[in-house]
Design goal:
Order of helices and strands of chain B: HEHEHHHEHEHHHEEHHHHH
Shape of chain A: elongated
Distance between the termini of chain B: 110 Å
Oligomer: heterodimer
Low-confidence stretches of chain A: none
Number of helices of chain A: 14
Structural class of chain A: mainly alpha
Largest sheet of chain A: 2 strands, antiparallel
Strand order of the largest sheet of chain A: 1-2
Shape of chain B: elongated
Radius of gyration of chain B: 43 Å
Low-confidence stretches of chain B: 1-15
Number of strands of chain B: 6
Helix content of chain B: 40-55%
Number of helices of chain B: 14
Largest interface: A-B, 11 and 13 residues
Amino acid sequence: MSHENTLHPDEKYKAGKLGSSLAKAGAGIAVVFLGISLILGSMHPDGHMRRFLYSFVIGWSYIFSISIGMLWLIILHYLVRGRWVTVVRRICEAMAGAFPLIFVAGLVFVIPLLAGYQDLYYWAHPDAANPELNHTMIHKLVWLNPQFFAVRYVIYGVGFSGLASYFRKWSRAQDASGDPAISEKLRIASAPAMILFSVLTCAAAFDILMSMAPKWYSTIYGVNFWGSACVGAFSALALITIGIQRTGRLTRSITPEHYHDIGKWMFSFTFFWAYTGFSQFMLQWYGNMPEETVWYKYRLFGEWQWVSIAMLIGFWAFPFVFLLSRWTKRIVPSLVFFAVWQLVFHWLDLYWNVMPQYDWQTVFHEGQKIVIGPLSGNTAMHHVGFSPIDVTVWLGLIGVFLVGVGRNLTGNLIPVKDPTLGLSLSHENV
Amino acid sequence: MSNADKHDHHDHDADEPQALPADGDLHGLLAEYDTPGELVEAARKVRDAGFTEFDCYSPFPVHGIDEAMGIKRTILPVLIFGGGFTGLILGLLLQWWTNAFNWPWNISGKPTWSIPANIPIGFETTILLSVFTTFFGMWTLNKLPQVWHPLFRNERFNRVTDDGFFLGIEAKDRRFDAETTTKLLSDAGAIGIDKIHLDPDPAKKVMPKWIFAVIAATTALALIPFAIAAKARNSKSSEPHIHIFADMDFQPKYKSDVAMDEFADSRANRGNIEGTVSRNPASLKADEAFYYGLEDDPTPAPEGAPVATGPAKRWITGFPKAVDADQRLMDRGKQRFEIYCTPCHGYDGRGAGTVPNRVAQGGGLWQAQNLVDPGKKLITIPNGQLFNTISNGAATMPGYAGQIPHRDRWAIVLYVRALQRAQNASLDDVPADQKGSIR
């Protein structure tokens, strides 16, 4: 079965109203769910909007990871002169292009931090600087302090937005001019872009997620985060693409062959996440040094062990075994099932990364209350404690993400004059 | 270029199949096509005509050819899954058998078998057997290697590894008919059609015997090293080792403390060279009390005792001047003791640490000394000797000089002294004003 290698004359590849309706729907979701979250958050017994902010960091990391996962695919596509991606690249560009909005959304937790909020990151708490208590992390406060954190947050914002808009801008320019030199230009840019991307991603993962446990060490953390991010990103790409086809657009250009490839990436990153996650775990388990094992101690004992087991089975074993097969990736309903499944577990992964740090212990020393921070005390006292806010914030931020994507879904939904378009259209998995 | 153009062009060739001289039975027909696309189209037509005994040959994989020929998807992935799974199970079994079953070995009281430690090797064996299954499965399922095939007799077919695209139909297909099949192939756009005959010599219709001989011989040769290893494992020998790398086993150098006849004292160790300072920190450790727990012994040697080379030494009983036996040192000592000594000697120093306990669970016997037993000399030995035991070990206890710095060793000495005192305390040790609180 050889496919056409030019765009079918009847193909609907103009976005039309698609983007604005998506953005409107997203805005509705965002307003409703973030509104509910604010109300629930202010009523939460832990006070200080603390639960809301924790949930917000999780939800924000979620949309952030999906957006940068797609940015990675775009850069990789040029770097290796990929082909199959071309037909879905506009969709990837729209997802990666949501970044500026995501950056603005993140200010919800960055600004309080700057204003002196102490209960989100332990390193922002005055007791973190207590030399008796925290001599193992005091030296890290040079890096981990609200002002420098905010500076880096801006760097991430500019970096990711810049990369996304650079690739998007030139790709669009090619639609008009059809100049093949643009592909070449982007290919050359993709190598340094990939390096920049990697550094930014690792650093952002260290700062935003890993520094929740400021005494802990792991060098592979950023890589593991990127693995999880790409599972989420490819799953989201599958869903959004299928959704766009449902509106009657791109129905002839995107075929099971392309879904097969998206599914393959979901599969590989599912394994990659497990691989890097296990690498992190095994070295620390084997080395058995308290400053490293502490992170796992609170995940492998007490209530959290059930979440850990659920992750192992749900985020890895089950999808891994099924996505091995060819049909699970080529049949749309099955792909949808696994995409939704992995999107839920990607969220759980972030939850599992953040929430064990939620319980901070305090001690009384010479009549004074001292906060000794996360990952301390008896493991049996640490509860998983799901809260409805976790879900409402998550949904609200997905709404924000959809606004970002929708605003970018304009004009051609396919890079009509890309030199690799023909190869992408006729792409086949042998 | 469309099929129709090609067709007109090559009709002439196609109508007159040429045969090789001195031929045996008809094997089938071989048609050549100009492009991969035409080959795919031809394959589709041949399949639609109901043929099953045919195959396509091309220098590289052609997209869509499987579907055009009506070939079912390969079962190779399923085999690979099976291979990989077997690899995983075998890898885990291997580790369990060696670590926990055949030769269990107590390492610092850790469990003999633990899944996380086995995952990397299980992963490797999974990959290994998957790759083997892929590689050998691919050859087997494709019926490769084929060193002999009737098509090889055809001159034209040589180009199949270069730029030729061929379709061969075998005569044994029940729809085969030399004339109509030729027409079918040429209608499909063949640029040349040949009749392929078997070699009249029956010996050339099968794989040559020598190939089997080579395979058998290499297999037998490959087994020789294993046979030698098996023999060596199961027999005794008084012969010296085989030295495969003699220059690595016998290096032109002297190890420390061996004899060397070139020097008058017959020793390979030459000591410090005149006018140099040793990099060995030991030679810089002038404070003997602090580094060795020793001091000069002023008591004169008894009459008739062997003459010592240096001044006489004895263990110090107090603490060296360089350390202050204060509360800080005591706290440090407690902490270091609980890190380094409790695994064997227990928190109270009575020798019931986790390591001996585990040895006992395994049916063995390895007891760390009771450090606080009032009946033992350990209570009375000088501090210097205790320090020396920590540094250099005693009998089956290893030395800790490599792990514990000198000052910490003294801290531990202090703490052991405190333990000995505390574990053997009497009522007299309790301050007078607190005696009342003891029942």
